[in-house]
Every structure is written in structure tokens, then in C-alpha cells.
Amino acid sequence: MKRNSHRPVPAAALVLALLAALSVFSPASRADAIEDAARTLAAKVAALPRLPASATLAWENRSSLPEFLSSVLRSAFTSALAGGKISFIENASAPVLRVTLSDTPAHILLIAVLQPAEAPAQPEDAILLEIDRSAIPVVLVISSEARIERQLLWRQPEPLLDGIEWAEGASQESSLFLLTRDSLVRARPSKDGWRVTGSAPLPASLLLPWPRAGEAGFAAVSPTLPPQLNIRMNRKMCAVTLGEKLALNCDGDTDGAKSKRLIAAPCSQRKYLLLTGSGDRNEKDWIQAVKSAPDEGTWLTPRLEMPGPVLALTARPEGNSAIAIVRNLLTGDYEVHRITLACGN
């Protein structure tokens, strides 16, 4: 495996008031309402009688909703369906689940249409969900208290599914865990970068059938202490036993849940939710952080451009950083970036 280090590239701090308005609802409750609507739509999709096991997701925002809120909706929608009755893949012959955001004077419309792949004469299943405009956050400001930074930790030509930083043992030594197509790899920092200090093969039962997009990665971290590192793949849960040698216990089932991608701004300790772009595997992507708080509005950091699509984004349990897996479109390599928030000034 090739290793490399990279100086953090700061995103320019920018202060710009985009929109201000009065509302009887707090911004935090409105942000929750957005995610609740996405989860409601996901539940309705999961209940469709002719739901296929896999489909291509086509997400389009034709509404006046800001793109970052469209990303919040998409993230909550796909997370609610992860490991459930349907998996999202990129395949021209697969059925298409088309989700369109549209407008009326009083509502934002979420329209989900399931288009069959091989039976064009078969009627399409359609779902319509309305979000009252009063539930939409209306105070939107580019944050001056924080900016996103990235640091390239690792790169390799072989595919990577996910990554997470983890504090091990009594010394709380930081390790980087990487999930490949057939193994769990542990690396630790050294004077020359990161070096592999252990690995464990994934059981064959996890790999068959090969997991679709979104069905493999590190699972939500339990709030109990000490935290438990888990892997989710093909609706199975593997508990990782740490030590000189890594071991996997893959007896449990999982619904595929993954923790929210929350990291804290060092100056204020406010938690920001990390968002990514549209999910197109053939285009460069971006990462942006958003926070909503009562009486403070909804705040965004400037976007941090990435060299390719973000394939996975997993927050560290302590909430001070996240790991992004990116496929560099120029080199074709799979890269591991540490994502942090820095003080804006």
C-alpha cells in the first residue's frame, strides 16, 4: 500500500447573509422536521408491495429549497433505507427510484416514483409527501466561526469501503482502521507516515453476495463505555476485538444504521453535521458542515472541494474529526482524508 501525507488545505472563511426571516418555529425544530420528512418518505418507499431488492437512486432538486437542505434530505432518506428492503446501486439495467423535490406556494413536495426496469408497461409506483414551508429553516448564514480542513493520510490503488480513526487501549493510541473488499486493516502513525500494524480477513459469509453501495462500513458507535468498534456488511454485524491481533465476531444482525456525521468546532464546541454532494461517482464532490440551534439560525461553512466522489464519511467517536474515503478522479487512487473543523478567524 502507498502512503502519503498532505498539508491541510483550509477552505476560505466567508461571511454572507443569504436570507433572514421571522418564524414561530425554532431553527433546530425545523431542521428536525426536514429529517423527519425524509424518514417518513423512506418508510413509505420501504412499504411498496413491488419494491425491488436494489435500484438506482435519481435525486433531483427542482424546488426553491437550498442545495444543502436537499443534501440533508437525501442523506436522511438513504440512511433510513440503509440495510433495509432496498439497496442503491449504479446499474443501467436496474429499476430507478426517482425522487424529485418540487414547489407549491405553501409546500415543498417530495415525489418518489419507482420505475420498473424491464416492464415498461407495468404501472409506476408513486408517493407524494408534502412539507409545510413553515417547517423549512429560513435563517441561513455562512459561518465565520469554523471552516473545514482536510489532511491526506493514505492512498492506494485498491478499493476502500470505509475508514475510521479509533483510540485504542489504556494509552488511547490513535489508529486508522480501513475496510477493504476482503479485510480489516489497522495502521498507526510513524515518522514516515502511517504503517500497517495488523489486519484480519473478513469472513466469506459477509462477502456473499458482494455488498452493494451503502451496505458496508463501520456501524454506529454505542454510547456505552468503552465504545465498541463494529463493522456492518450485508445486514450482518461484526464486533472487532482489538489487541496485538485483530479478531472479528460476526454473529449479530444489523439494520445497517450508521451514526450521524457530527464533529465539533474547536472554538465553540458546537456540533456540525457533515454533508456531501449529489453522490455521482464520476464527478468531483464537496464536503460542507451545517448546524442549527434555537435562536441562532442555520449556519453553513464554506464548501471544501474534494478531488473526486466521497464514497464514505465516518466521524470519530470523540466527535473531533471524521474520515472521508475519496476516489481521486485524476489518479484513480482511493484516498483517506481526515476532515476537521478549524476556527474561522
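^ that was protein a. below is b, sequence first then the C-alpha cells
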Amino acid sequence: MAMHLMAIAAATGYQMVQPLPARGRVPALRAVATAPTIEPALSPPTNKKEMLAQAVGCIKRAREDGNNRYVLRLFLPRGSEEELVPCDESWEGGIMQLFSVASPLVRELLVSLSTSVAGVPPSLREQRLDASGVDGESVWLAESSQPQDDAMGFVQPSTEQIVQIEAASKNAGARPILLCNPNPNPNPNPNPNPSPSPNPSPSPNPNPNPNPNPNQASGPSCSVTRSGRSATTRSTRSRARRA
């Protein structure tokens, strides 16, 4: 019978079509869409070791691209478990508490960076930049076995250190310089635009009775000379000689 139908189809120019299967026998097709797995290039660090490793990796990649000047904003470890915390108002000790943690952290960063480049630990020394000692600014110098592997890391530098940073950048050449957790305004003015006083009082004269003769003793004074005698004694003797 099948051969007979095929012969008829060939003779009439029609194409044989297979009959559709029964409805109950149609196989069910299912399509499930799965999202592609994308690994992040960089994820937030969970501890200090990971953070320093990420920082060293970023610096190495930047150096390969020809960049040798970096600005790094690092979390700071706090507490016995060294939980990473941003530099915010939760640090009750202010800028000096931040500095007490940031300075050794920058030191560790320079050790890791110089070791990974030169293969040997560098010689490190720190120099304070804040003359007052209360602004929490310093610079770490890492001297490796090869001069080209030296590095410099500024800790919490403020705008007051721009001159020193520019001078260091000029002298360092291709050696890396790090600005870690820069502080743009260490001493903010709570009222940067004070309104002028309606009746300003004249400034007092710092020397209302100037002495035109430096060799003549003036009025009584409380200043003490090296011998322990006060200027009052010298003034009394001068008046006695004139009398």
C-alpha cells in the first residue's frame, strides 16, 4: 500500500507528508534560561591582608601602564579582630586616632610593595610632616636594594603639604609615590565667611610707649634677664644716676 501511494505521489508531482502523531504522543519541550556566571574583577576586601594585596596589585598594574603616582583610600583595621572601617566620624579620637592606625598600615603596604618588586625587604624610615604634632601627617621612605625600586608613601597628607609633595614627585622620577588617605582640610574653619562687625574697634597699639633711645631704660618691666635681675632694677638705677 505504501509503495502504491509513493508511486501515485511521484506520478502526480505531490510530496508525501508524514501524518502527525497523535496528540497524546507529542513530546514536551522545555527551555530553561540560565544567567551566565560572571566573576567580579575586584571585590571588597574582607580583611587587612586582602586589602593590602589588592592595593599592591593595583599599583603593579598601574606601573605596567606607565603610572607612578597614586592616590589610595584605604579602610583602617580597628579592634582586636581588625575589622575594616572607613575613615568617618565613628573614630572618636579624630585625626590622631586615624593616624595611629594609618601610619603602620602604610608601612606594611610599602613593605609588601617593595618586596614584591625587588624581592627583598626595604629599609624604612618615617618623617613627621606636621610641625604641631597634632595634624597626623607623615611620609614613609622605603629604600630597596636597587634605587629604582624605592618608594614613598604620604600618610594623610593635607593641602599644606603640596609644596613638599611636588618637590618629592620631581625628585623621585619613575619611582612610585603614594598619597594614602589624603586629608584635604585638616583645620576647617566653621565660619569661612564671617560677617563684618558694624562698629569695628581699632586694633590696640602693641607698643603704646615706644622708647626712642634703646640705651635708656623705659618704665618698669617684668622681664627677667639672664642674671635673674629684672628690668625694673635697671630702671631704678638709671633714675638714681640722673638724680
